[in-house]
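agent: user wants the structure for M23 family metallopeptidase from Rhizobium terricola. delegating to structure tool.
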Amino acid sequence: MEIPVAGKSTNQVFGKRRQQHVVILASGDKIRHMTIRPWMAGLALCFVGMMAIGYLGATTYLVFRDNLIGASMARQARMQHEYEDRIAALRAQVDRVTSRQLLDQQVVEEKVEKLLEQQMALTTRHGRLGALLDRAEAAGELPSSGPLPTVKPNTDNRQASLSGGVQAIEKLLGGKPDTSQSSTTALGYVPLQDTVADRADRVFSHMTLSLKDIEQDQLERIQRLTTGASATADEISGILRRNGVAVDDEISLQDSDAIGGPYMAPQPSEAFNASLNELDAALSRLETVRDTAKRLPFANPAPGKDITSRFGNRPDPFFGGLAMHAGIDFRSPVGGEIRSTGAGKVIAAGPAGGYGNMVEIDHGLGITTRFGHMSRILVKVGDEVASGDLIGLSGNTGRSTGPHIHYEVRRNGEAVDPMHFLNAGMKLTSLID
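agent: tool returned. relaying tokens verbatim.
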């Protein structure tokens, strides 16, 4: 129970005094009273106000806290989704780069294998070509190709560069797939850079061009040699044919060694191998016709000696009437050298009627030569002689009126004019030496 009590009081110094509020609390017989001063009311009012403000603040915080937490969680979830999407994209691109590098490595390995096969084929070709060039050099100067170069194709430097290129490709193959750019680039796409296959493609293209240049150079050289060998062989064959020697028929017989077997279609060959085969055939034909020409009697039996009597009808030195002279006579004193005019086998060596001491040599292909009126024979039957070998000395034996060299050429037993062979020999000198 509150009973305000008001009393009059005066303040001698400050004037009227404020009225005080007294709060009386009664509980049974006990009565308490409490004087409420203004500052206490103000303090209570401030406390109540602070409590109200705190309550309102807490309420406001709780109300907005859920919105803030929801927004923050939504933002974090969105950022996480974006991060995961970009990580997935980077991982896919890393896989794509790795797959491409692995595929490029397989492609490069295949190209290296192909390149090594080409280089091995080139080395094999060079070995075969070297053997053919040695034969061509032994053949001497060919009219269609000019003087034959003595230097083989300069492929050492090119092959060294090719070997270096192969090593470069193998070095590229030794590297592992490079994924560092993808791993160091955060939250972004990595553009594809120059790959191993791209670099290997450039090296491979360069070496392929080098191989093609070498092969083209070899093909041109082979073609020139083939043309020259064929032209020389044709020229020698023409001279031989004009003298009744069918050397091409002999070559055909030599090449016809096949005697049977089941038929199989011919296998196609590469252009390079075909060119080598053509050159091989041309050189073989040239060697055959040259050997034939060297074997046949195209040389002079008495170099530097004058011809005193030619082939054909002439007055007989013993009877005076016309008589057939089956050879030609060379002026030579007794003891002059007589040399074989071609390679062959001695089939007669001794006295032979009107020939006196005679030597007959079989040169093959039905061609034989006879040397008569010798003073001395230096060979015997069965001897093999080469062109230019000394076979006897001139004399005056047999049906002869003076020392000289009687020389005959016979084809299939019939005498032919030796001058045809001597003139052909002068033309063949530059072709068979």
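agent: one observation worth passing along. Residues 306 and 331 are 5 Å apart (CA to CA).
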